[in-house]
Design goal:
The protein is α+β, with helices and mostly antiparallel strands. The strands form 3 sheets. Strands 1-2-10-7-12-5-4-3 form an 8-stranded mixed sheet. It binds 2-oxoglutaric acid and fe (ii) ion (FE2). It holds the Pfam family DIOX_N.
Length: 363
């Protein structure tokens, strides 16, 4: 037996032992004091020395949307969106019009799902397949090191049909349906602002399908007994067009800027917005899709719900590339055209991988 085969076999054994379908939360409930080896990240993944060092006076921008549509104030919001999207790839929005109760109930629904009776939770557990709803300890079987979290995925985009509401876990069904409705509406507003920030007609991004389809990925990051050894979610960029993210009061989300990690401090009632790789491509690098991660934490649970916009089934055979109106003699296209179907297949086959699918299309 080669040593590589042995490592693979050992790993399979470790996975089987761990994978009781009780998730990372199951480990915490069992009272472990040392995290299993599969969660221990290589030292270079964990480096935090750069965290906000020397740059404490700058923060991920917070944009107040209350004055949208109001002349000069509107123009100043568009300008803030342009700067945040170009420099950070991340911003938070406040006064977006979504009732606090909708956000609180979404968080509470995720908590209830994860903290419900294990037997009920197990019914949702699965690693593969085209099911709309999946509950996993993320990427446990494909990647070298596992992340310290449990994830409930609602695949709502790119499928022939929407899931029947009865497929959603009953404890979070109503809150999730309500949340999705509001996220779609907010996305329409944001895509208008982002279009204007690119100097395009407000409906431009909407007209090419950016608001269509979204998948909801809910994360539950249990408290970790050795947070300095693990990550809640490894460093990655989001492959889609735009991500809207709701987070509870436990921090941990960090974004990379100039090789330093910056905390995205939770803001009560705020929502995090981040540019995905596809929007970086569409904007021909005017907007940046930025690497981010979530640290593990002694306290918890951290709960978040990410809403990924990446087009829907009707767009799978469409080509995407840098928007023609942005291309000029002095601004050449930096990406080849891509077929959405092929691009997404690359993203799905290597989620959170080191080589994002956009790299295949760089000119
Ligand atoms: O939980 C978070 O704050 C971030 C989640 C995230 O980055 C993702 O799902 O892509
Ligand atoms: Fe992400």
């Amino acid at each position: 037996m080669t040593s590589q085969t042995k490592i693979d076999l050992d790993r399979t054994k470790v996975m089987k032992e761990f994978d009781t379908k009780a998730g990372v939360k199951g480990l915490v409930d069992a009272g472990i004091l040392n995290i299993p080896e599969i969660f221990v990240r290589p030292a270079e993944d964990l480096a935090t020395e750069g965290l906000n060092s020397g740059r404490r006076n700058i923060d991920v921008p917070i944009i107040d949307l209350s004055n949208i549509g109001d002349g000069n104030l509107h123009r100043s919001i568009v300008n803030e969106v342009r700067i945040a999207s170009g420099e950070w790839g991340f911003f938070q929005v406040i006064n977006h019009g979504i009732p606090l109760s909708v956000l609180d109930e979404m968080i509470e629904g995720i908590r209830l799902f994860n903290e419900q009776d294990l037997e009920l939770k197990k019914e949702m557990h699965g690693h593969e397949g085209a099911k709309h709803v999946q509950f996993t300890s993320f990427d446990l079987h494909n990647s070298q090191t596992a992340d310290w979290r449990d994830t409930l995925t609602l695949r709502l985009a790119h499928l022939e049909s929407d899931p029947d509401p009865s497929e959603l876990p009953s404890v979070c069904r109503r809150s999730t349906i309500e949340f999705i409705k509001h996220m779609k509406r907010l996305a329409e507003t944001l895509f208008k602002l982002l279009s204007e920030a690119l100097g395009l007609r407000p409906d431009h991004l909407g007209s090419i399908g950016c608001c269509k389809g979204c998948s909801i990925v809910s994360h539950y990051y249990p408290p970790c007994p050795q947070p300095e050894l693990a990550l809640g979610i490894r460093k990655h960029s989001d492959a889609g067009i735009l991500t809207l993210l709701l987070q509870n009061h436990i921090g941990g989300l960090q974004v990379l800027r100039d090789d330093q990690w910056f905390d995205v401090h939770p803001v009560r009632g705020g929502l995090v917005v981040n540019i995905g790789d596809l929007l970086q491509i569409l904007s021909n690098d005017e907007f940046r899709s930025v690497k981010h991660r979530v640290t593990a934490n002694h306290v918890g649970p951290r709960i978040s719900a990410a809403c990924f916009f990446s087009g829907d089934a009707s767009l799978l055979d469409e080509t995407f590339g840098p928007i023609k109106e942005l291309i000029s003699e002095t601004n050449h296209p930096r990406y080849k055209e891509l077929l959405l179907k092929e691009y997404l297949a690359k993203a799905v086959s290597n989620p959170l991988g080191d080589k994002p699918p956009m790299d295949y299309y760089k000119l």
